[in-house]
Amino acid sequence: MNILEICHEFNIFNVLKVENNTNGLINKSYIIKTKDRDYIIQKINNSVFKDPFLLMNNIEKVINHLNEKRQFKCENLELISTKVGNNCLENDGEFYRCYNFVNNSITYDFVENPSQIYEMGKVLGDFQTSLSDFNPKDLKITIPDFHDTKKRFEKLVETFKNADSYKQQEVSELYFYIIKNIDQYSLITDNLNRGILPLRVVHNDTKLNNVIFDKNTKKAKCLIDLDTVMPGSLLFDFGDAVRSFVSNTCEDAKDLSNIGFDMNLFCYFVIGYAYKVRNIITDEEIALLIDSIYIITMEITIRFITDYLENNKYFMVKYDKHNLDRAKNQITLAKTIEYKKEQLRKIVKNVFTRFE
Ligand code: GN1
Ligand code: MG
Fold this sequence. Notes:
Blueprint: H1 3-9, E1 15-21, E2 28-34, E3 38-44, H2 52-69, E4 79-80, E5 89-91, E6 94-101, E7 105-106, H3 114-130, H4 149-162, H5 165-180, H6 187-193, E8 200-202, E9 211-214, E10 220-223, E11 230-232, H7 234-245, H8 263-277, H9 283-287, H10 289-309, H11 322-354
Antiparallel strand pairs: 1-2, 2-3, 3-6, 4-6, 5-6, 7-9, 8-11, 9-10
2-acetamido-2-deoxy-1-O-phosphono-alpha-D-glucopyranose binds at residues 24-26, 48, 205, 225, 227-228, 251, 300.
């Protein structure tokens, strides 16, 4: 089926234009423009998501719950059904889904103004609070052990052993830093398994460009890309969100000298976030917020190196060493976080005390 035929399956006719959307490292997206309204059709990567129907059912449940809890529906999260009323189209082993595309919405790869980050903190906090009464066990596991950093690490060790010696040499400096910090990787999962941290609904991919903003009001509207909603710890989302904006460069920038930890942005984020989650977050979760930023940054570093060693099977790349560049970038950020940990803990403590 070509893209126009796929549109027809979603009852979309009179297509004026189809644009490729290059955001995202996993799914392929197309913006479909028609006379009356626009849509985004995504081809779900089914080597990453083995059962797209399971994933779509998770998404639908979460959207329905969010719509019930809020006074407004996020129009960006309106799923368009197929002609026969399904939330997903299967054709020749390929899977497509369709959302409403809202023209006055915008996403950012970079921070242009600290108020965006305050907004991002609020939108993440709102997501977690709105879903705090949703039983996470009602969601299916679409990618097992997604944020099990220790397992990601073990996979890297295996992959490294089997890699060719040239590549081993190439990643050795990164690899040894990763091994040195092994003690930290199971901090969140161990506490989850022991019941010290509550199991919650987690978005699992809370980077800045998954926050939709209103072009006119500049307010954040909602978190999009719900592909990885699954049970887990809210710390995964906090850590991932912070790592995505705090260095103020993109995650594949090659110039490592620009990578820092923007304290000012971090404060804006924590204030917005704490304001929204103050009634649901536990002391045990607050105590690990800073660790989560380090852990999730190390986890994505581990994933990028593993994929580089496995010849870029998982993440889309634009050139052979793309994943290696991403890993170098993220490990540089992780080292900055490690260095600032105590200072960051004080900020978190001060902000949360203000909301007591
Ligand atoms: C992937 O496709 P995208 O960009 O939303 C990945 C995330 C990573 C992210 C890094 C299912 O998300 O886990 O943090 O790339 N998604 C999946 O940019 O693996
Ligand atoms: Mg995603």
